[in-house]
Amino acid sequence: MRILITGGAGFIGSHLAEKLLEEGNNVYVIDNLSTGRLENIESFKDKPKFHLTIGSVLNRELMDKLISNVDQVYHLAAAVGVKYIIENPLLSLKTNIGGTDNVLELCNKYKAKALIASTSEIYGKSEQVPFSETDDRLLGSTHISRWGYSCSKAIDEFLALAFYREKKLPVVIVRCFNTVGPRQTGQYGMVLPKFIKAALLNQPLIIYGTGEQTRCFADVSDVIQAFIKLMNTPECAGEIFNVGTTESISISALAHKVKDMCHSKSPIDYMSYNDAFEEGFEDMMHREPNLSKIKKYIDWEPKLKLDDIITRMIEYYEN
Questions:
Q1: For residue range 42-59, what is the model confidence (pLDDT) as tens digits?
Q2: What 3-state class would DSSP assign to 218?
Q3: pTM of the predicted model over 0.90
Q4: Is 164 a catalytic site residue?
Q5: Which homologous superfamily does the CATH classification assign to the domain defined by 2-179+219-246+287-303?
Q6: Is 159 in contact with 101 (CB distance < 8 Å)?
Q7: Which of 74, 123, 149, 164 is catalytic?
């Protein structure tokens, strides 16, 4: 099969590309390298069935050429990371909305099946945990940059569902909850790689806010298996699925766990959200997915537990 991955040199995209190559597919990747990295694809970039294009999903002519040649598109290209989104609000909105519009229009033109990567940010600051795919959303003021990201991904979902309903385009939407693993960088605010890198260097582990906020961390190997199965299950077209794990931990407990597992001497420090991001920054206290729908449709659940994930990441960063 011929498959395009947008954002394929990114953390999740590179793991997906590697897996699809192992399955014998011809894999095409486009990435502008704003947050993706060539080193992520180093181990397989010379394989004959791998094809890399450095460019933007906003380039309509280039995207037309790529999508005309494939059967499926995994659309992962997006502005990612709280820090990056706050520092690049305009580019983030344009990339997320304009890029997805290009992908959907061209998938419809060439009858290619699409998977659109969305986010748990969709749920905003709702406290109705665990989150189900049909739950209401609760967002903050438009003065707060991070809610623009949530809204842009919601527009992506509305566009995808509209193409499915009006054009019969087979499209699947996935809402990811804190995907982690080897190759992930903490450069744009991802907490687990930041903690691990700091702990290995005996540098301070910085917790934003009180540390009482809880998150669930799913390994990228489990997440890409879900993507592939969702993409290749016809009944999943036109549906939205949470993808993540229900194993929850507070950020404070995570910092102490990482410090212990790294045998680190790092101090654990706290920083206010205003000092870390922007004045008025809002966070959500708890974020946990309800996985009953994805379990029902494809009988999927994550295999790796948090301790296994952290061990895997420590080994990667040590090497």
A1: 999 999 999 999 999 999
A2: strand
A3: yes
A4: no
A5: NAD(P)-binding Rossmann-like Domain (3.40.50.720)
A6: yes
A7: 149
